[in-house]
Design goal:
Layout (H helix, E strand, L loop, with lengths): L1 H5 L6 H8 L3 E3 L2 E3 L2 H17 L7 H12 L9 H12 L2 E6 L4 E4 L8 H9 L4 H8 L14 E3 L8 E8 L2 E9 L7 H19 L11 H10 L6 H10 L6 E8 L4 H11 L5 E7 L2 E7 L3 H10 L6 E6 L9 H18 L5 E2 L1 H11 L4 H6 L3 H13 L3 H10 L4 H8 L3 H15 L6 H17 L1
Parallel strand pairs: 11-12
Antiparallel strand pairs: 1-2, 3-4, 3-7, 5-6, 6-7, 8-10, 8-11, 9-10
Length: 456
Amino acid sequence: MYNEYMDIQNLDLRDLLTTRYDATIKENQIQISPDQLESYVLDMAQRLAENKKEDPSAPTAYETGYRNVFPPLFENEDFHTLVERTAKFLERSIVIIDLGFHVIDYSRNPKVTDTLWTANIRRGSCTYEFIEAITEMLPSERLPKNSDAFFVTCPISDELKLCSLLYYKKHPIGYVILLDNKKGIEPYHQQFLPRISKKLAKALRFHVEYSDMFISASSEILTNLLNGNPIEEGETQLLAKTLMAPCNLKMYLIRGRLNTLHDVSYLRNQFHAFPQLLHVFVYHNYIVAFIKEEDEASLDEQFRASNLKEQIYDAASSNVFHYIDEIPRQYRLTRATFSIAAKLGRQEIFHDWRDYEFFHILNECKNRDLLESYVHPAIFRLMEYDTTKDGQLLETLTSYIKCGLSVKDTAAALFVHRNTLTYRLKKITELTGVNLENISELIRLERSVQILEFLG
């Protein structure tokens, strides 16, 4: 029964699916049971194995064609030209995507005929169905750890797909996808696609417009460090040299207004124009940057003069640290600043660690009643007075502390006359009995206000 179907050279793929595998095709969408889909893939693999007994002269012809696609110094050629030559050699359409499932390039001749992939190209990224088909292969270890060709089946696509991972220096950077154009997959496709993917990965490295697909050695070490992987002594030394450690270092986490892979990479590249930054890389859609503490003022000045603030949603700084092994902890704390700022309703673009240090301590305590027990009784007394008398004593006290106990600056901040402020401060002392000249007590009052702010 198998040969009856497979030996008919001009058999239409749709007829094959509907007759042998009980599939239903409607509006270019295939409905097929998982068991039948698996049988189809296995049958196609068997056909490829049987067809290896071909004309002995064929491999020589294919090798010649392959060498024509990738002649010496092919890396300097236009990447799209390489894609077109590859598709012509394979006699099938191909699509190149990165690990974020964004379309990098695709062939125009042979053109992409699959409805799903035509839509992917128009959108610039893959649909959920294909991403799910790839990710389902990851837990079961079915995805190769090299450039070996593998099949991907997608229920809503009516073409068979042969794929190969793009690798550069043992790191995956994307996929080459060969669509069968309803003509089937030939043995030489499986033979040459891994070799082609290696060549295309190498070519991508030579084109600056694709540089966001690659990371430097320092970025790779930092990624491993943040992932919790051990790094070797030589890698530690390289990273210390890059970041000039040990010294007073600070880390910045920056979130762009758009968080697609290419948008984040584009924003990262713009930060390379800031000479104060020791290193910049992307980790989990955050732009991570390092700077010496002494250079913060000049960085802030240059940043304010640039147009980058229009492209940034917000940013947070870390506490000062000195050694490489402190980086993972500083990253976790700095990342937590974003959620704390949201909890507090802060709207500013830049979140300085110094403004959030105490809130990080509060964030570690999950007992609300315990936190409330630390609030100075004077704060509750002022809150009660303000509620019953429609007063502004608590706001006055908070501003007075923030303004460094300066009557002039506090009056300006509250838009009141100095005499009005003096009266309010006297009233605060009368109601609470606190000494506003006692620094220790003022710190307790300030912390109490912050606890109530944190608790909402």
